[in-house]
Design a protein that fits this description.
Layout (H helix, E strand, L loop, with lengths): L1 H16 L3 E3 L4 E2 L18 E4 L2 E3 L4 E3 L4 E4 L4 E3 L4 E4 L6 E7 L6 E4 L6 E4 L4 E7 L1 E4 L3 E5 L8 E4 L2 E3 L7 E3 L7 E4 L2 E3 L7 E7 L8 E4 L2 E3 L5 E7 L3 E3 L2 E3 L1 E5 L5 E4 L2 E4 L4 E5 L7 E4 L2 E4 L5 E4 L5 E3 L2 E4 L5 E4 L5 E3 L2 E4 L2 E5 L6 E5 L2 E4 L8 E5 L9 E5 L2 E4 L9 E4 L6 E4 L2 E4 L10 E4 L18 E2 L11 H7 L6 H8 L12 H11 L19
Parallel strand pairs: 1-3, 2-4, 3-6, 4-7, 5-8, 6-9, 7-10, 8-11, 9-12, 10-13, 11-14, 12-15, 13-16, 14-17, 15-18, 16-19, 17-20, 18-21, 19-22, 20-23, 21-24, 22-25, 23-26, 24-27, 25-28, 26-29, 27-30, 28-31, 29-32, 30-33, 31-34, 32-35, 33-36, 34-37, 35-38, 36-39, 37-40, 38-41, 39-42, 40-43, ...
C-alpha cells in the first residue's frame, strides 16, 4: 500500500510545479512572494500567471517555456523602467492575454523611463489585447516566427506616448490572424515616431489581416504608420499628422479612411520596392501643410473614389505609378490630380475625375502634369471624361501639361472645361511644354477630340470639410470636424464619419447638366 501513496504524493507535487496557475493577490513588486500569495512563480516554467492587482516589475523578467501571462480587468502591470521579454530562448512559446472590460480596463504602463515590452522574431508568441491601455513605454515590440502557430489580435485598446515604436508585430503564419480593431494610437515620443509597424509576408495568406476603425494621432508631430503585410486591409481609420506607408508586400489596400496633416509632405506612401503594391479607395485626404503630396504611388494600382482637399497650389495629389488607374476622384481647393515626376513606363488611365479650383488666386485646376525633373516621361496617359472647373478665370491655369512630349503620348477626349462666374476658360486646355528650348513653347492650346465647354451645374459647388462641419451644427471649421472624427472610438457625434463626409461632397459635386452625363466623378455613395 505504500507504493500507491508515494505515487499520489508525487503527482500532486508535479501538478503544483509544472503548469500551475499563479494569481497576484496584492499590490506589490513582481519578485515579492507576498504579491503572489506566498510564492514567486518561475516565469520560464510554463505556468499560467494571472495579474489581478497592481504588479510592478522590480527587475527584468523573461517569460518562456510555454508560459501564459494574463492581465485581468482593472489590473495594472507597471514595468517601472524594466523590460518584460517574451521568449527566454530560441523557439520559446509564450501566450499573452490581456483582457479588460468596459467597466474596468486593464493597464500596462511604465512609471519610470525606459520600460519595454518586447520579444524577438525567433520566438513563438501569440498576443491578445482587449480593452487595454498602454502608456509611457520605451518600446512595445512583438515578434514571432512566420511558421509558428501564433496570432495577434488587438481590440479596443490605446497606445499613448510610447517610444520609437508604439506597437509593432512581425512574423505570422498564413492561416492566422493579424487584427487591429477600434484602437487609438497617440503621440509617439521617439525619433522614428512609429505609431504602428507590422511586418507579415506570406504567399497567399488565408487568415484575416485587418486594421479597422483605428485612429492615429501624431499630435502635431510627423508620425508614421508602416505596414508590410501581404493582403492587408486598412479600413475606416482616421490619420491625423500620421502618414500611412505601404512597403514591400502585395495586395494592400486602404479604404474609407480620413487623412489630414499640416506637418507631413506626404499622406500615403506606396513603396515600389520588392513588388509591393496597394490600392487607395474612398478616402478623404486633406493636406494643408507646405508643398504637400497626398498619395505617392510607387507601384500602387488604383486611386478610386477619393476626395482631395488642399490649400497649397503646389500640392500634387497623386504622384508616380508605373501603371495606375485614377478614377472617380474629386479635387477641391488647389493642386494637380496626377503628376509624374520621373521615368515611369506603362499606361496611366485618368478618367471620370472632377477637379474644382475653389481657392481664388493662383489656383491650378490641373488634371495631369508630367515633367520628369530631367528624366523624360516614357509612359502614356489616357485622359477621358474628366471635369475641370475653375472659380477664378484670371488665374493662370491649364488642364493637361506634358514635358518634352512624344507623339500620341497622351490620349484625351470627352473632357469638360468650365470657368466660373462667366463660363470663360482664360487659358489653354492643353499645354505641351518643351523645356529643351527657350522660351517655353505652347504646342497645342486647344481642346481635344469630343471635349466640351459647359456649366456642370453642380448641386452645391461650395461644399468642403468646413462646410460639412457647419451642416452638422458645428462651428464650420475643419479643425472641429477633425476633432470629432478622432473621437471614433469614444463618446462622439455618430454623424461624423468618413463615409458621411465623402457622400456629402459627392452629392454636392454631382453635375445636373444633361450634356455632362458620364463626365466627372460618379455620385455613387460609400456604403
Amino acid at each position: 500500500m505504500r507504493r500507491p501513496v508515494f505515487l499520489l504524493l508525487f503527482l500532486t507535487v508535479s501538478a503544483g510545479v509544472h503548469g500551475a496557475t499563479f494569481t497576484s493577490v496584492a499590490d506589490g513588486p513582481w519578485g515579492d512572494a507576498r504579491t503572489w500569495g506566498g510564492e514567486v512563480p518561475d516565469a520560464r516554467a510554463g505556468h499560467v500567471l494571472v495579474i489581478a492587482t497592481r504588479v510592478t516589475l522590480d527587475g527584468d523578467v523573461a517569460l518562456g517555456g510555454g508560459t501564459e501571462l494574463r492581465l485581468q480587468p482593472g489590473a495594472v502591470l507597471d514595468l517601472a523602467g524594466h523590460t518584460l521579454a517574451l521568449g527566454a530562448k530560441r523557439l520559446d512559446r509564450v501566450s499573452v492575454q490581456f483582457v479588460g472590460s468596459e467597466q474596468a480596463r486593464a493597464t500596462v504602463t511604465s512609471t519610470k523611463p525606459g520600460g519595454a515590452f518586447v520579444t524577438g522574431p525567433i520566438g513563438r508568441v501569440s498576443v491578445q489585447f482587449e480593452r487595454v491601455d498602454f502608456s509611457g513605454l520605451g518600446d512595445c515590440r512583438f515578434g514571432s516566427r512566420a511558421d509558428a502557430d501564433t496570432h495577434c489580435r488587438v481590440r479596443h485598446s490605446t497606445f499613448t506616448r510610447s517610444g520609437d515604436l508604439s506597437f509593432t508585430f512581425s512574423g505570422m503564419p498564413d492561416a492566422n490572424d493579424l487584427l487591429f480593431e477600434h484602437c487609438d494610437f497617440r503621440a509617439p515620443t521617439g525619433k522614428q515616431n512609429y505609431l504602428l509597424l507590422v511586418n507579415c509576408g506570406g504567399e497567399a495568406p488565408t487568415g484575416r489581416r485587418t486594421i479597422t476603425h483605428c485612429t492615429f494621432d501624431g499630435e502635431g508631430k510627423p508620425a508614421q504608420v508602416r505596414t508590410m503585410v501581404t493582403n492587408l486591409t486598412v479600413e475606416a481609420c482616421v490619420f491625423e499628422d500620421a502618414a500611412w506607408s505601404s512597403f514591400t508586400r502585395p495586395g494592400q489596400k486602404v479604404s474609407r479612411s480620413f487623412f489630414h496633416t499640416a506637418v507631413h509632405n506626404c499622406l500615403v506612401l506606396i513603396s515600389s520596392s520588392w513588388n509591393g503594391d496597394a490600392d487607395v479607395e474612398d478616402c478623404y485626404l486633406f493636406a494643408d501643410g507646405p508643398n504637400p503630396h497626398s498619395v505617392h504611388m510607387g507601384d500602387g494600382k488604383t486611386v478610386r473614389g477619393c476626395v482631395f482637399e488642399a490649400d497649397d497650389p503646389e500640392c500634387n495629389h497623386v504622384i508616380g505609378g508605373k501603371a495606375v488607374t485614377i478614377e472617380r476622384n474629386i479635387v477641391l481647393g488647389t493642386g494637380t490630380l496626377y503628376t509624374n515626376l520621373s521615368v515611369h513606363p506603362g499606361t496611366v488611365i485618368v478618367r471620370n475625375n472632377t477637379v474644382y479650383a475653389s481657392k481664388a488666386g493662383g489656383a491650378t485646376p490641373m488634371l495631369i502634369l508630367t515633367e520628369g525633373r530631367g528624366n523624360k516621361f516614357t509612359g502614356t496617359c489616357v485622359a477621358r471624361n474628366n471635369l475641370l472647373v475653375d472659380s477664378d478665370t484670371t488665374s493662370e491655369n491649364y488642364g493637361i501639361g506634358l514635358s518634352d512630349p512624344a507623339p500620341n503620348q497622351i490620349t484625351s477626349d470627352g473632357n469638360c472645361f468650365y470657368g466660373y462666374p462667366d463660363g470663360k476658360v482664360a487659358v489653354p486646355y492643353y499645354v505641351w511644354i518643351t523645356r529643351s528650348r527657350n522660351p517655353v513653347d505652347v504646342i497645342r492650346p486647344g481642346p481635344g477630340g469630343k471635349d466640351i465647354i459647359a456649366d456642370p451645374k453642380f448641386v452645391d459647388r461650395h461644399r468642403n470639410l468646413a462646410a460639412w462641419d457647419k451642416s452638422l451644427g458645428g462651428p464650420g471649421t475643419s479643425e472641429h470636424a477633425i476633432a470629432e472624427l478622432l473621437k471614433l472610438n469614444g463618446a462622439h457625434d455618430k454623424r461624423y464619419t468618413t463615409d458621411a463626409l465623402i457622400n456629402y461632397i459627392r452629392e454636392g459635386f454631382t453635375p445636373t447638366a444633361p450634356e455632362l452625363e458620364g463626365i466627372g466623378a460618379m455620385p455613387a455613395k460609400v456604403r
